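S1.2 Input.
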Amino acid sequence: MNKKTNSIIFLVAATIFNVVLTVIIIGLLILGTTFVLNKAGIIEENPIILMVDWTLCLVGGMVLSLFLYSKCINWFIIKFNLEDKLDGKILGKKQSSNKNSAIKEERPKTVIPQSALPKEEI
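S1.3 Output.
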């Protein structure tokens, strides 16, 4: 298989992993916070708190799953040495930073002439 086919298979599997991870995290957050609020008796006093709680769990779960997804995918790529087997477009920063650093090293440094520097006052 070539890099393009490997990349497509990797992205499909990573997307399925991301959806499952997001559902699990949001579900655990909702179950955990609902249990705690129910034990504290807050839900019976004001049921609107439950709606606010679920909304915050939804947003927080999405942010947390994005963070964990990026960490897991980067770990997976490094662990199984997939850098050379996947298309450079999905690797993102890693290849572009290597290219930029090579370009920066090739450029000569700009030198400011002494006449352009501010003169010290005595």
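S1.4 Remarks. The mean pLDDT is 85.
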